[in-house]
Amino acid sequence: MLEFTTLMEESVRNISPEMAMIIDSEEFKSLELQRRHFTSNTYAHSIRVAFMAGILAEKWGIHKEETVKAALLHDFCDRDTKTIDVEKQKGFYLFSHPIAAAINGDYYFGLTPRQKAAIIAHMFPGSLVMPASKMAWAIITADKLAACYETFILPAALKKAAVRI
Ligand SMILES: [Fe+2]
Ligand SMILES: [Fe+2]
Question: Whose atoms come closest to the Cα of 46: which ligand?
């Protein structure tokens, strides 16, 4: 399981020196400290989303590097779902974190208007912002697939592995 995520990371890293630079940056690495979907963290989640968005970009004939960069940074914000009061922040986090990620991503690594719009729309349909490009749809689709994997498949696999140990 872990090895598979490492392979995805290598694949994303090899797309371009800029992808490797983002992955190796302190700011991006700090996402490892943020829990995401119970058994994962935002770093691993972002790698999975970037990898899958890259596959979709190839299939849909859209710019792969541009799409993968936006996907890598789609949750690039310092809101920690582990420490915030989830009940209180539930609705707020849904709306605020895509905007925070677009601002942070642009500040640290530079984003095009299309990449920023795609990041801001990534919670669709759970947000008010409509996706307006194929890139946005690629990120939305990859994000939902990764979230399902992390919420349902990964916990079950980890439980099974723990039983075996
Ligand atoms: Fe998100
Ligand atoms: Fe996400």
Answer: 2
Asked if residues 29 and 20 have their Cβ atoms less than 8 Å apart, the reply is no
SS3 41: strand
Which ligand has the minimum distance to the alpha carbon of residue 123?
1
Q: Find the 30 Cα to ligand 2 centroid distance in Å.
A: 15
For residue 17, report the distance from its CA to the centre of ligand 2, in Å. 23
Going along the chain from its start, the domains and CATH numbers come out as 2-6+38-164 (1.10.3210.10)
Q: DSSP code of 153?
A: I
Cα-to-centroid distance, 123 and ligand 2 (Å): 8
Would you write out the chain's pLDDT as a tens digit for each of its 165 residues? 556 889 999 999 999 999 999 999 999 999 998 888 777 899 999 999 999 999 999 999 999 999 999 999 999 986 544 444 444 545 577 788 898 899 999 999 999 999 999 999 999 987 778 999 999 999 999 999 999 999 988 777 777 777 665
**Where do we find the tokens 């970009």?**
57
CA of 61 to the centre of ligand 1 (A): 24
Give, for 32, the enclosing helix (H) or strand (E): none
